[in-house]
Structures are given as structure tokens and as C-alpha cells.
Amino acid sequence: MRLKVLGCSGGIGGGQRTTSFLVGRHTLIDAGTGLGDLSVAELVQIDHLFLTHSHLDHIAMLPLLVDTVGAMRSKPLMVYASTLTLDILSEHIFNWKVWPDFRVIPNAMAPFIRFVPFELGDVVQAENNLTITALPAVHTVPAVGYQLDSGRASIVFTGDTTVNDAFWPIINSIGNLKALIIETAFCNHERALAEASCHLCPDMLVSELQKLTILAEIYITHLKPGEIELTMQEITELATTFRPKMLKNGQVLEF
Question: Which residues pair with 117 in a beta bridge?
Fold first, then answer.
């Protein structure tokens, strides 16, 4: 399995890109601003997009992706998300006011995009032997994380989440887990904001990681620009046992 980090920041500016991961050549996890760095030839090859939730930093490039490559493809882009997330996209994005409804362009029988309800616990085979499973997340809008399983190895992405007791028993049962990508958006002095927005800060992160009973590489994502160094310093000092690393734009994970 090859996962390329197109974006993993909690904001933009100074080369930062928001969340988007390319798995292989045909599968995308979220569609943040990092997606815009791919070439048109690479964008055309994306067949599957799995959205964790509807917030703008995770969907920003989806409307432009469909508009750019829809006519170049022979089949619809399949967009997987929970029914509630798809309802939000229908009402607020693909509504002919913010953006055209590409589910009926050029026609409903052969659209550029197709929404696929993908609920908690559902499993889809994306490409080759890659299976993707929707995992629980706790956020301010309906949200999920994902397990990416090649058969030989699994990578888990929490998506945007706060304290999430339902998540850890599932993760601890994954026998081939190699990497956990987990968010930490705020530093400790902004814990109140982290709690209100359903994100993690370093103290909360460490409490969550203590629920992990198996070995895995830990990567930190969704750090807010302007607080990256402080937040990572706090994480490093508090989570020494887990040896967490900061996920970086352009990084490639191969297992």
C-alpha cells in the first residue's frame, strides 16, 4: 500500500495544504486543498473518493475536481460518505447555487459524479486488494475515520475527532495495523477550543493513545498553522512512549 500525503494541515499559507491523501493511483481520502497539486493526468485517474465529513477543509477541491476532469472520464467519480454527509453536500454544495449538480451532468444516466452512502462499519473494495472500512469518529458534524487494508498491512486515519471510546476496541483488533494517523489540532492552552470544536490537544491525545494496546507508527495530522512547533513540542514531551511523528505534505507511507 502506498499513501501519498497531498495535504495534512489544519489551514493554509506558507506551503500548507488541507487534508487529502492519495492511496495508490485511483483512491482519494478527503479532498482538501492539497488535491490541487496533482496534475490533470493524475486527477483523471481518481475513481474513488472517501470523505470523512463535510467541513470545507476536507471537501474544498471536490467541486473543482469534478468540473475539471468529469468530461475526460468514461465513468463517474464515486464519492463515498455517510448519508448525512452526502445530504449536506447535496443541500449546500451541489445545489446549482454554490455549484452545479454534477450528479445529473451531462445526464442522470451517465453523470460525472455519483454519491454512494457509506455508513459506519461498511467495507468497500477500492482498487486491487485495498479494502476501506468506515470507523467511528466524534466531531461537530457527522464524521467517520477509515481503515485502509491492503491485506498485508493496514493504515488507520481518525479523521477529525475528539475523545472517542468506541474507536479504540476496533483499532486494537486490527492484527496488521502498521500506522495510525491521528489528529491534534490545538495546543494545550487552547484545550477549551479543542473541546468545543471536537478536536484534540496534546493532553487529550495522550489520554487517547493510552487506549491503544498494539504497536503502530503514530503520525500527527491537522496541526494548526502558527501553533505547529508548540503543539508538536507538547506532544513529543507528553507522548514519549509512542514516539509520534508529524505528518508532512508530500510524505509517502508505504507498507
Answer: 81
Q: What span, in angstroms and rounded, lies between the C-alpha atoms of 114 and 48?
A: 10
C-alpha to C-alpha distance for 30 and 32, rounded to whole angstroms: 6
Sign of the dihedral through C-alpha 143, 33, 39, 23 = negative
Judge whether 178 and 217 are in contact, CB under 8 Å.
yes
Average pLDDT, integer, range 227-245 = 96
Is pTM beyond 0.90 here? yes
Angle among Cα 82, 114, 38 to the nearest 5 degrees reads 95
Task: Name the β-bridge partners of 28.
Answer: 22, 49
Phi then psi for residue 90, to 5 deg, are -65, -45
One-letter amino acid identity for 138?
V
The per-residue pLDDT for range 95-154, each reduced to its tens digit, is 999 999 999 999 999 999 999 999 999 999 998 889 999 999 999 999 999 999 999 999
Q: Residues 89, 101: contact at Cβ < 8 Å?
A: no
Quickly tell me which residue has 514531551 as its cell: 237
Q: What is the number of residues in the chain?
A: 255
Cell 490545538, residue located: 186
The helix (run of H) or strand (run of E) holding residue 27 is strand 27-29
Residue carrying C-alpha cell 443541500: 91
The amino acid present at 76, given as its one-letter code, is: P
CA atoms of 214 and 136, how far apart (whole Å): 18
Quote the cell numbers at residue 145. Answer: 475515520
| CA atoms of 222 and 208, how far apart (whole Å) | 16
